[in-house]
Amino acid sequence: MSGAAPCRLSIVSAEPVLRALLREALRGRFDTTPASLADADPLGPTRATQDAGLILLDSDGIEGDPAAFVAGLTLIGAAPVIVLSATAAPGSPVALALFRAGAEAVLHKPAGRLPLDLGGGFGAQILLALDEAAQAR
Predict the structure, then answer these.
(1) What pTM, to 2 d.p., does this model score?
(2) Residues 20-33 pLDDT 10s
(3) 9-110: CATH topology
(4) Which sequence spans correspond to the domains of the chain?
């Protein structure tokens, strides 16, 4: 992303603290916009999805089926969706359902405090998935 304007990233989560932490951790690398789940209604374009280049979705706060939520975003032509989930371990039925629904990447959130060091661990996984999706656009 050198030289070009940063990709517009919508950070969608039911948790305001997580939205703020992710926004701060990704500041400068992406043009971030935090949004609640209500702001990202998969039934139609919203402020959170309409102008986003990428969507980082924390699926843990979704009432109902997270895969249906992702499929709805995909059907309305929303940006590529990177999903964070505590229940979607690699290869699990939950992760596979999210991929089938159209998720670009599914990252398994570790239990407990979310480590957002972008230099390693889970933070580096988030950054890698976002960078790959941004470059593929």
Answers:
(1) 0.85
(2) 888 888 888 899 98
(3) Rossmann fold (3.40.50)
(4) 9-110
